[in-house]
Specification:
It contains 15 helices and 17 strands. The strands form 2 sheets. Strands 1-3-4-5-2-7-10-9-8-6 form a 10-stranded antiparallel beta sheet. Strands 13-12-11-14-15-16-17 form a 7-stranded parallel beta sheet, with helices on both faces. It has 493 residues and is an alpha/beta fold.
Amino acid sequence: MVGQILVEKVFAPDDQERFAQISGDWNPLHIDALAARRTQFGMRLVHGMHMVLRCLEGAALEFGSLAPAALKVRFLKPVYVGELMTARIVSSDQNELRIQVEVDGVKVATLRLSLSGEPTGVIDDGRWDVQPVTTVARDLDFEALNGRRGEVAFAASPGAIGEAFPEAGRWLGRRRLAALAGLSRLVGMECPGTHSLFSALAVDFRRSGDGSELSFAVTDTDVRFRSVKMKVAAKGFAGTVEAFFRAPPVAQSPIGEIAKRVGRDEFRGQCALIVGGSRGLGEVVAKIIAAGGGHPIITYSVGRAEAEGIARELTNWGALCEVMRFDVREPALAQLTAMMTAPMQLYYFATSPISRRKGRSFDSALFQEFIAFYVDGFNNICAALQSRWGSNFVAFYPSSVAIDERPENMTEYAMAKAAGEILCADLPNLYPGVRVIRERLPRMPTDLTATILAGTSVPAIDVLLPLVRLVQEAGVTSNPGTAQADSGVPDTR
């Protein structure tokens, strides 16, 4: 039995929607692809409690004759929508069942289910009322979590719970299962709410709460780790839940603040195409150029509303700004046909999610994904720009200190960036008239670099303003090539 697979499941977007209806957890990290894009994960994550209930459904088929006594779960790594989850037995006897959840051989969660050794009896669930629940998560500050307490209503009827998890419903009882699903709503919608990440749970099925709903009370918060611990109770169990308060999306400085550092006419007459200018570092560059009287053209791949929001901010301030869709994975030249003005500069901030769950082995598919963004995409747009207008331009390529520092689990990223640097060195020979400026950027606050634990970072304006000035100066020189020195970028290595 050890090594036996209990469950194999690919969580599709429809599965996310159905579990949100059952649990009441509509946190955007699980449901909204665009909102998830603004997190450090970059993509939608599977509800942790959905995985747990699927594991309990599988366990019920094998161990349903023995009454469950307690459950401990620890979530170790994220699982992305569309991935295959495999839950397998790692040990079992009449007292305990241990389950390991994996994706591509990487351990992502562990479950320890204690068994009473007694036969499972008939569970009288009774009935409960289903009240309308909001689909908008609470947007709380970390400081507001301390001492927080309350109740979480069940989002689904007994029939809906039984239909979704029939075997687990018979084994544990549908009310108890509804309360377990409610833990997802507790963490994702109530406490910590919007900026949450489920970490662990431990519940005893031999204890029981008094209320008709799931109750919770925060018992401890730790600002160092941005963690929160809660006591929870419902009819059918009592225990504890642990969660993290993850970093919210990074708001870059408004153009009014940036303008205080930039000469009003410093970049007048300059037209710059900023690939990936709808957020993050590209957004900051667009605001620098606009504040200096230049004409930024910002691109987006999926975040049209974000790009248009930045354009409104700049035009309301009195600056120029255009918006266009551009996906570096699609043919470049066809996407540039709508542009009427030849850009004098290209800033290339296209990226895919950087922080990924990885195993010990080299991930060739992930490496090829990074190559598509950091090598192929940059080469293709440089070739397309020269083909479209046949004029000279300066291209800025942001490399990374990860090439030297080699952070854990970032081998593929660092390799792709190193390959991009080689392309930068040779690109002026491939496309005469193109001048490339490459800089290894330090860590700066962006959505993709945000983590649970605060890290050292340099303000984006301090790094990027000297580089924008360097790109402008390079545009007036006649000697094409690759530049990387005298940028004035703070050295954080």
